[in-house]
Amino acid sequence: MTALARDTAAAAVEVRGLRKRYGDVTAVDGIDLRVRRGEVFGLLGPNGAGKSTTVEILQGHRTADEGEVRVLGRDPASGGRALRSRVGIVWQDESAPAELTVRETVRHFAGYYPRPRDPQQVIDRVGLTAKADARVKGLSGGQRRRLDVALGIVGGPELLLLDEPTTGFDPAARRQFWDLIRSLADDGTTIVLTTHYLEEAEQLAHRLAVVCDGRVAAEGTPAELRRSHGEFATVEWTDTDGRTRRERTVTPTRTVTELTRRFAGEIPGLKISRPSLEDVYLLLTGQLGDRTTDQSAGRDGAAVQEGRR
After folding, report:
1. 13 near 33, Cβ under 8 Å?
2. Cβ pair 280, 226 in contact under 8 A
3. Using an 8 Å Cβ cutoff, are 72 and 83 in contact?
4. I need a surface site. Which of 53, 55, 97, 242 has the fewest CB within 10 A?
5. 25 has which bridge partners?
6. What is the pLDDT of residue 306?
7. CB–CB of 67/33 below 8 Å?
8. What is the rounded distance in angstroms from the CA atom of residue 2 to the CA atom of residue 67?
9. 191-214, pLDDT tens digit by residue?
10. Distance (Å, rounded) from C-alpha 177 to C-alpha 195?
11. How much of the chain is in helix, strand and coil states, percent to nearest 5?
12. pLDDT interval class at 182 (50, 70, 90)
């Protein structure tokens, strides 16, 4: 038994040194992950960062080129049907049979599993009771995604993999979906979620990993990521020409002192804010850039950028 296999007793997912290449392109370049049983774990990263490939390997859809992977204590590449019955997945693009009704579709998929949940209870759980006899082709986009989740959980999975589940949702539908995910987590389902929505990650995930260029750039709770990688502050004010100026700095008190001298007292429109999770994410993935609009503000803002290279 490998050291990795021994370490998975309290882990739903354990990954070490995961690598996957497609020709000359390295999609995943040495990822390490540990997802505890019963938690919601978020995978964040820009397009092409390696998130979906990682999820495909966890599901057993693809095999790793290098590294060790354990899902519910088994290697997904050789876990077979027994492991797949314990893992639910919702891909970005699902294709349920258009001519079947919601009820017929959920019942059909339930037949793939040895111990499925009751199809009607699943339909009720995802909020499709009123649409149970509607054909799939007549559902709205949000209703189709709810059906996708129904198909992902009808087998009673211990682990649910969600790949960009709320893409295309309006704000109300997204928040309803969040409630559904929370209820599944409250029931003890382990959830791995990939998403581009930082608010979604902060609302749902107990812990996060930010993936960039196939590697984990940072991992921790949202609060830990803000503390560890968000030491800068943004100072905002209204300048004498009426324009809003912003400075990203690690010494906001000094910036405010300098502004006080410049304005000889009250600083118009003064705001000081600490970084959001989105700021930290953009910094870690090299997308934050220099948003400073005042020439004198480059000193400390540049120091922050240099410190991350």
Report:
1. yes
2. yes
3. yes
4. 242
5. 22
6. 32
7. no
8. 12
9. 999 988 888 998 999 999 999 999
10. 13
11. 40, 25, 35
12. very high
